[in-house]
Write a structure and sequence with these properties.
The protein is an alpha+beta fold and 426 residues long. Helix content is 50%, strand content 19%. It contains eleven helices and twelve strands. Helix 8 crosses helix 9. The chain starts with a helix and ends with a strand. It binds adenosine-5'-diphosphate (ADP). The site of adenosine-5'-diphosphate has 21 residues, from helix 9 and helix 11.
């Protein structure tokens, strides 16, 4: 009897232990599962009797999961922040690994190398095809590179200049691969401006040197030999000095005017004037000048143009420059016609209504090859004729700047004679 009772009690104990064991196993599995899926166990408790005993472990596990989640959030936030920061940068950024595979590149890089297509995970040399750049990559890795390096990318159509700075990214641990970061700054515009500036300085020096050396030469001759010189010779030397110093003065005047027009804050003294009478008064003044005596000046000016807001002093220079050129570069007996009409301006000129003025002549015109350059500083088709007539080679450049400051545009056509057009917004 007692034996049976003991056996039953043992069996009951065994069953109870097995049930507990199963509950503990379930609890352990639930904790494992929640750690894997990173989902906290609700209420820090597991259902069932075993839950009470596991509560400490569960709350530890829940804390671990919460901490892990917050780290994940911070990491993805930082990554998004980094991507957004790189994306908004003007500079192109590219990161490559030890094997030259692109790990990261921002939008600016794709706009700098539009032909590169998909960049990520590509080999670097397929994205940026340049032996000079590849050499620089090697130098950065060997720590022999200059902090900044200029590289030219020459294609059939253009040359682009890039200033590149490279740096090694310290490896996170011994087993991680070595990354290299490059920041590329497009300096093509600066390079072009620098070339324009150098050319301009060279042109100015050249333009100043010729009259200056003539003035100097004549002055020296006069100083040395004026006592033994005939009056005629002395007169000739003095006139040369006068002519060339006048040329120097107008060159410097035009240069100063250009620099004022090109300054960051060029001033226009705008007033509203009846435009047709403004044009007529300049043209009437011209008709009375000896320079126009051998030419026929005709007009076709729309009297309905009305008032325009213009800087009368500067716009007078525009009209005078164009009429001057038409008289200078055409033979005696040629005709110069000034027309002005109202017209709709194209969207490229701000749209809306405007006025177009044209100064046309029936002279020799301008060769087609010269037309695209005609408004450039110091550009002359006939250098001899320009200098002979006191030209500085800056007149049309000044015309363009003044018209653009008024919001208009200039253009030229040439076939039989030359026709210079400029528009003004109404
Ligand atoms: P310049 O002081 O030499 O006249 P511009 O800038 O006014 O300088 O003109 C540039 C060049 O354009 C001139 O040297 C001349 O060769 C050419 N040109 C200008 N207007 C005319 C025209 N009406 N007919 C022919 N050539 C012209």
């Amino acid at each position: 009897m007692l034996q049976s009772i003991i056996i039953i009690a043992l069996a009951a104990g065994l069953v109870a232990t097995l049930i507990r064991l199963a509950q503990h196993r379930r609890a352990a599995r639930a904790i494992m599962q929640s750690l894997i899926t990173r989902r906290e166990i609700g209420g820090n408790r597991l259902p069932g009797a075993a839950g009470r005993n596991w509560s400490e472990l569960i709350s530890e596990a829940n804390e671990l999961i919460a901490e892990n989640k917050s780290m994940q959030r911070t990491r993805s936030g930082r990554l998004a922040q980094l991507e957004a920061t790189l994306g908004s940068l003007q500079e192109a950024v590219i990161i490559i690994d030890h094997d030259n595979t692109v790990l990261l590149a921002n939008k600016a890089l794709q706009s700098l190398f539009p032909g590169a297509g998909t960049v990520l995970n590509q080999r670097f040399e397929n994205v940026i095809r340049s032996a000079a750049f590849l050499e620089y990559v090697g130098a950065v890795r060997n720590n022999t590179a200059q902090p900044q390096h200029e590289i030219a990318f020459v294609t059939a159509n253009e040359t682009r200049w890039v200033e590149v700075t490279g740096a090694m990214i310290p490896a996170v641990n011994d087993s991680s691969s070595q990354w290299t970061l490059f920041v590329l700054h497009n300096i093509t515009r600066q390079k072009k401006l620098e070339a324009v500036r150098k050319e301009f300085v060279a042109n100015v020096s050249h333009e100043l040197r010729t009259p200056l050396s003539l003035v100097k030469g004549c002055a020296e001759t006069l100083v040395d030999g004026h006592r033994d010189m005939s009056v005629d010779d002395r007169d000739r030397f003095l006139r040369t000095i006068q002519n060339h110093s006048e040329r120097l003065a107008s060159l410097i005047e035009d240069l100063l005017l250009l620099s004022r027009l090109e300054s960051a804050n060029p001033r226009l003294h705008v007033e509203r004037v009846p435009f047709a009478s403004f044009l007529h008064s300049i043209i009437d003044d011209y008709r009375a000048r000896p320079a126009a005596a051998a030419h026929e000046i005709t007009t076709d000016i729309d009297t309905n143009i009305g008032e325009l807001s213009i800087d009368t002093f500067k716009l007078t220079q525009v009209v005078e420059n164009l009429i001057d050129n038409a008289l200078k570069y055409t033979p005696a007996g040629a005709r110069v016609t000034i027309t002005a009409r109202q017209r709709a301006l194209p969207a490229s000129e701000g749209g809306g209504r405007g006025v177009e003025v044209c100064v046309r002549d029936n002279g020799p015109g301008i060769p087609a090859a010269d037309l695209p350059h005609i408004f450039e500083r110091f550009y002359r088709v006939d250098k001899g004729r320009s200098r002979e007539t006191g030209g500085t080679g800056l007149g049309l450049s000044i015309v363009k700047h003044i018209v653009q400051l008024h919001g208009g545009q200039v253009r030229v056509e040439s076939g039989q004679g030359a026709a210079f057009f400029f528009t003004l917004p109404a």
